[in-house]
Design brief:
Elements (H helix, E strand, L loop, with lengths): L9 H12 L6 E2 H8 L4 H11 L8 E2 L10 H10 L4 E3 L5 E3 L1 H4 L20
Parallel strand pairs: 1-2
Antiparallel strand pairs: 3-4
Helix pairs in contact: 1-3, 2-3
């Protein structure tokens, strides 16, 4: 990604670089990103995404419960469907990320670890 701006904090740059590496159809939680980077925590990652995440695939960095980003649900769901990101329906019929199948561990070449990308998606 390179240095976006001299004003962009180094931590924010690391978070955004990792967000860009998440393969289409996969997600990482805010906590996953912090753990993978070895610094910060879910709140710090969320803050970075809120301030600077518009330039990267923000819909791939998510809450651990699989709920689409409040206020951006429709846009996020459009991206998930276009990328065939695994979704499930709640008992109330609301779409959620299927975290067991969609979660990415950051391993190179792990774009389809479960091999079940061909299953139907909501």
């Amino acid at each position: 990604m390179g240095r976006m701006s001299e004003e962009l904090p180094a931590y924010a740059e690391h978070v955004l670089e990792l967000a860009e590496r998440i393969p289409p159809g996969r997600v990482m939680t805010y906590g996953d990103v912090a753990e993978w980077l070895g610094e910060g925590g879910p709140r710090q990652v969320g803050r970075v995404m809120a301030l600077y995440g518009g330039a990267v695939p923000w819909w791939r960095v998510v809450r651990a419960d699989g709920v689409p980003l409040p206020g951006s649900e429709r846009r996020a769901l459009e991206h998930y469907r276009a990328e065939a990101t695994p979704l499930r329906l709640t008992a109330g019929g609301e779409p959620r990320l299927d975290m067991r199948r969609a979660r990415w561990d950051g391993a190179e070449g792990d774009s389809d670890a479960d091999g079940d990308r061909d299953e139907a998606h909501i």
